[in-house]
C-alpha cells in the first residue's frame, strides 16, 4: 500500500521547483545546478520515501543523474508532474516484491537518520565468503529472471549512494562500508525472495544476506508492513 504522501511526492517536488526556479547564470550569479533528489528530500515526510521516488523517476528517464543542467529543468518538471509513485510504478521499478523493498528502504533511512553508536553487528558476515557466495547467487537469480535492473534499483533505494555515503553515517570508512553492505544486502535478498528454490538460490542464501540487518537494527516499517519471511 502506497501512502498518499509518497504517491504525490513528485508533484510536490515540481511545485517547489516552480516556486523557486534556478536563476539564469550571469556576471553576478554563480553557476547553480538543481538536485531533484535534494528537492524530494525537502518534501518527503520520510527520507526513505524520497529515495524510493528517485528510483522510480530515474527508471522513467529523469534527465541527468543527480544534478540537472539548466536546459533540462523543464523536462524534469514535466516528468515530475506526470508520475505518481503508484503500485504499478513501484512494481515496474523494484519487481514483484516491491512492498518489502519499499518497506526496507523507508526503514533503513529512518534508522540511519536517527543515528546509532559505532555498530559491531556486521562483524563476521559482511565481507565473508559465505556472504559473497549468497550475493552472487541472488544476482544470478535476478539475471535469469530478467530482473537485474530492478534488483540493483532495490539496493539503491535502500542505500542511496550520493546521499548516504556523504551525509548520513559519519563514521570511519570501514564501518560505513559494512553498514552500507548490510543495508544493500537485505534489499538484494528481499528483491528476489520469491525466487528461492530456483537455480542455485536457496532460502539459506537469503538468510545470509538478511542476517546482519535483521539481527542489528532492522525493523519493519509500520507504514509499509510486509512479510520478509
Secondary structure: elements and pairs:
Layout: H1 4-7, H2 9-19, E1 34-35, H3 36-43, H4 47-59, E2 67-68, H5 73-82, H6 87-94, H7 98-114, H8 129-144, H9 148-158, H10 161-167, H11 173-191, H12 203-215
Antiparallel strand pairs: 1-2
Helix pairs in contact: 2-3, 2-5, 3-4, 4-6, 4-7, 4-9, 6-7, 7-9, 7-11, 8-9, 8-11, 8-12, 9-11, 11-12
Biggest sheet overview: 2 strands, antiparallel
Mean pLDDT: 83
Distance between the termini: 18 Å
Q: Which stretches are low in confidence, meaning pLDDT under 50 for 5 or more residues running? A: 218-229
Strand-residue fraction?
under 5%
- Secondary structural class: mainly alpha
Enumerate the strands of the largest sheet in spatial order, edge to edge or round the barrel.
1-2
Shape: elongated
Q: Which series of helices and strands comes N to C?
A: HHEHHEHHHHHHHH
Number of helices: 12
Number of domains: 2
The number of E-state strands comes to 2
What is the radius of gyration? Answer: 18 Å
Helix content range: 55-70%
Amino acid at each position: 500500500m502506497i501512502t498518499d504522501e509518497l504517491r504525490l511526492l513528485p508533484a510536490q517536488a515540481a511545485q517547489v521547483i516552480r516556486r523557486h526556479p534556478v536563476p539564469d547564470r550571469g556576471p553576478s550569479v554563480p553557476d547553480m545546478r538543481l538536485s531533484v533528489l535534494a528537492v524530494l528530500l525537502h518534501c518527503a515526510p520520510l527520507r526513505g520515501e524520497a529515495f524510493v521516488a528517485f528510483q522510480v523517476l530515474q527508471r522513467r528517464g529523469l534527465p541527468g543523474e543527480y544534478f540537472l543542467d539548466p536546459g533540462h529543468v523543464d523536462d524534469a518538471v514535466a516528468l515530475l508532474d506526470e508520475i505518481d509513485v503508484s503500485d504499478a510504478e513501484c512494481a515496474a521499478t523494484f519487481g514483484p516484491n516491491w512492498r518489502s523493498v519499499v518497506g526496507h528502504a523507508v526503514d533503513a533511512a529512518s534508522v540511519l537518520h536517527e543515528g546509532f553508536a559505532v555498530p559491531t553487528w556486521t562483524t563476521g558476515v559482511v565481507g565473508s565468503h559465505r556472504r559473497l557466495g549468497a550475493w552472487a547467487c541472488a544476482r544470478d537469480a535476478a539475471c535469469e529472471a530478467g530482473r537485474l535492473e530492478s534488483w540493483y534499483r532495490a539496493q539503491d533505494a535502500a542505500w542511496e549512494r550520493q546521499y548516504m555515503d556523504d551525509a548520513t553515517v559519519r563514521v570511519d570508512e570501514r564501518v560505513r562500508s559494512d553498514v552500507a553492505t548490510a543495508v544493500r544486502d537485505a534489499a538484494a535478498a528481499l528483491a528476489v525472495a520469491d525466487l528461492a528454490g530456483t537455480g542455485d538460490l536457496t532460502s539459506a542464501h537469503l538468510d545470509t544476506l538478511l542476517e546482519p540487518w535483521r539481527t542489528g537494527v532492522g525493523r519493519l516499517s509500520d507504514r509499509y508492513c510486509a512479510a520478509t519471511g
